Amino acid sequence: MRKKLQRLRRKLKQARDEIDSLLGTPHKVSPLAPERFPDLPVIRGVRFAAAAAGIKYQDRDDVMLAEIAPGSTLAGVFTRSSTRAAPVLDCQKKLAALKEGAADKAGFAIIVNSGNANAFTGAVGFEAVDKVTGAVGTALGIPQDHVFSASTGVIGEPLPFERVTVVIEQLKENLSPDAAEKAAHAIMTTDTFAKGASAEVEIGEKTVRIAGFAKGSGMIAPDMATMLVFIFTDAAVRQDILQEMLSRLNDTSFNCITVDSDTSTSDSLVLAATGASGVEIGDADSESGQQFSQALGKVMLDLAHQVVRDGEGATKFVEVAVTGADSNEDARKVAMAIANSPLVKTAVAGEDPNWGRIVMAIGKSGAKADRDRITIRFGEIIVAENGWVAPTYSEDAGARYMKNAEIVIGVDLGLGAGAARVWTCDLTRQYITINADYRS
To answer: Coil, strand or helix: which one is 43?
Structure first.
């Protein structure tokens, strides 16, 4: 009987996979998803294409190519995981060469596949990167060192790079400045919706445009950025300035989100500036630098929030705001301890105002804390203060608040001026289902 049940489960799983493949979306769309993909502005100097290579899912696009005009500058941040994937290591090497001034005025390209992470694949992983980036360079007539790649999907399986290289000519032929949405869909894995964001800013009577897209749903606890993110602007920004802005803004956007406390082997964030608008951006302290930085930060935070909203199995979007800490570092420790706690996240999923789990997370964080100075809030509701439940708090009020799709957990430690804000989602049974079936 047991073996028969196992066979039936396998058949059911195969049937679900076939349906998912035909639909092109592995899982039901998140209830926190936006109504539709946004209308991204065309970024002059960038063209996109997508194609179906059949790496994992059949009959859906799973490879995207971005062609970036000559004279552009690139910046990037990548996972600090000690088991970084071959594409990440290759990108880091190429970006370091650009910083050293080795790059000329040739164009750039970004090639991305979903369905296979090309991580923990030994020498064949680097061979796959070499074959793919070499083929793209040849097709577009640019140096191979100007071709950046990324892969996302299953870890530990060799990337069938021939399936990627065979569609490169097709990608080249279909390059279009208004195909960003197709590119965003092609890089999805367990994502339930494609993620895009944009901003426009007037600088010196000219308009600068910024647009980007991201993928990410699970294995989200960034140690640089989150999963795969690609952002493009028509501003002219010197490479060192672009890198400084990206790294700084990353610390208050992608490095402030978590879905499941697991850091990916493949996290990559690449930002390209084409200069096609003719607007030159100064350093971070200049007026143009401040204007541009604010707009870029808006795009990055929007994409980061979308990743959380698409957290595997998520039904709640949660902001954790910590104030009154001894330092910003301590505030972040507390915020992340709360955001990553399975007990907190499951309570949120169950709409249970179990504030004792917040107390637990504060205590385990390693940050300086004094029980009798802590204040805990659910939204505007004061839950606990002065070392005890607040006299005005009622469990009914807390339970009603927890039914909201968007929740704010506030903590004031009463010790200093340190503050931090991070974002997470709840932990549901669907998260277990998605990850239990991911490979089998």
So the answer is: coil
**Is 226 one of the catalytic residues?**
yes
Q: Of the residues 192, 226, 258, 323, which is catalytic? A: 226
Same domain? For 81 and 62 the reply is yes
- Residue 76's domain spans which residues? 25-309
Dihedrals φ, ψ of 420, to 5°?
-160, 155
CB distance 438 to 190 below 8 Å: yes
| Predicted confidence (pLDDT) per residue in 371-399, tens digit | 999 999 999 999 999 999 999 999 999 99
Dig out the tokens for 173 from the structure.
Answer: 């032929």
* pLDDT tens-digit series, residues 349-379: 999 999 999 999 999 999 999 999 999 999 9
Cα separation, 322 vs 336, whole angstroms:
10
- The count of structural domains within the chain is 2
Measured distance CA(191)–CA(68) in Å, rounded: 26
Shared domain for 385 and 270, answered yes or no, is no
Using left for φ > 0, alpha for ψ between -120 and 50, and beta otherwise, residue 379 falls in left
Model confidence, pTM: 0.88
